[in-house]
Sequence to fold (124 residues):
Amino acid sequence: MSEIPQPTPPEGTPNTHAHGLGPATSSDVRALHDDLEQARQLAQRSQRELLGKSSELEALKELFEKARKHLIQLQMNITQLRDERHQLANQATEAEALKQKLIVVTADRDRLRAQLEGIRKWQG
Fold:
């Protein structure tokens, strides 16, 4: 009886048939070897994806830090604008008070001028 020729295993696959294992066991060992190779490839792919995710995470951290700095600057600018608004409101109030005072002083001057002209006419 002649034996059925077995396919040559991929390079790097242990030749279990030469070690006295039967064809079924040899096939199982090759299947395990294939599964191991697939697991290695999956691990490599996962490692690359993890590296990519790590890069994404680092980019997001940088973006967050920039946004945080901009927010702090924005808050400082808002505080400065509020202070300027209060100063302008105070100046506007002071200007209105000075305008009212000028109206009163101008009216007093005009009244006193009219009295003085009346006194001058009476004297002479």
